[in-house]
Design goal:
Length: about 375
Amino acid sequence: MRRILLVFTSLLIFSCGKEDSYGIKGTATGFEDGTSLYLQELGENNKRIAIDTAVVNAGSFTFTKPTADGTGIQILSAQGINGQLLIVKDKAPLTVTLYKDSINASLVMGSKENELFNTYTNTSRQKNQKKADLLQKMRQAQAQTDGVMVTEFSNQIKVLDEKFVTDKKQVLDTNPNSMVAIMALSDLINAKVLKVEETEAYYNGLGSSIQESPIGGSIKRYIAQQKSQRAAAQLASIGNKAPLFSAQTPEGKELSLTETLGKYTIIDFWASWCRPCRMENPNVVRVYNKYHDKGLNIISVSLDRPGQKERWIKAIEKDQMDWYHVSNLKFWQDPIPRSYGVRAIPATFLLDETGTIIAKDLRGPALEAKMAELLGES
C-alpha cells in the first residue's frame, strides 16, 4: 500500500498550552537576508494550508500571525532550500534556530514536548544510522561471500528491528496525550509491524485531541480502510462468488464481469505502470492463446492513473493482451480492486463458469499447470 502518513523522523513537536497565542520567531543560520520563510498547516489528507510568511532580516525572522486553536502540525520551509521543519501547533512562545544546511534538524525551544521529541528523534537517528551501517557491512560481506559475517550482521539488524518496535510501543504507552505518540504510531504503521487490531487499540488509547488532529484522522481512516480491505478479501476468497462489477472498456463502453464469463475466467488486476505485471503478461498471453478456444476467458482490470487512458491502451497493444479490458482510471482508489481486497498487483482470481472463485494469484508455471489440469494439455 502506498504511505498515507508523513514520516516523522527529525520533526520538531510541541504541545498545546492554555496561554494566549504567540507567533514563532527565531534565528536563521546560514540564510541570506531577504530569504522568504513559509509557515503552513498540515490539513486533511496531508493538504498544506498557507498560514504566514516571514523574511530573514539580519539573521532573524518572526511569524506574526497567531497560532490557531486545536492540535496539529505546522510546516516551516524556506525559499529555494530543500527540507522542512514540522512543528506541533502551540500557544506557548516558540523560538527556532533554523539551519540552512539541515532544516529538519533545526532547534526549537519553548515547551516540554520539545525535550521529549528531541530524545525520541535523536535516539531514532542513532538507531537508523547504526542500521544503515550494518546493512552496508552486510552487503559487503555478501559481495565477499562471507556467510559467517552475513549471518552476524543479519542477527544484529534483527535485534535493532525488534528494539525499534519495543521502543515505539513504549512511547505510545507512556505518552498517550502527546503528539509524539502519533509519531510513534505512524512509524510503526509505516514499518508494517502492527496488525490492524493492534493499531486500532493504540489509536483508541490516545487522547481525544490527538485522535482529532489531522494526522489522527489519517490514522483513523487507515484503520477503516484496512478493516474494509480485509473484509473484502474474506468475501473474495476461494469457494465464494466473485464480487460483481462493471467498468469502462478502452472503447468507452460499459462491460460487466457477468458478460465476460467463460468456462473458466481469469480476473487479472494490473496496470501499465506495474513492472511485475508487465513481466508476467507474456506468460498470461501464452496461457490465453493456448486455452481460449477451450473455454478460457480473461478480463483485465487496470489500476492506471486518472488521465492516463492512452498509456493504458498502448500497454494493452504492446503486450498483445487480446481479451477483455476495463478500468475506472482511479489508481488505488478504484472500487473494483477494493471489493476484492487487492493490496498489490499483479493479482489474479480464477473463476468457474458460475462465477465462483476456485483459485487465486496463480502466476508463471503455476497458472499454466492449473489450466492444463482444468482444460487439458492438448
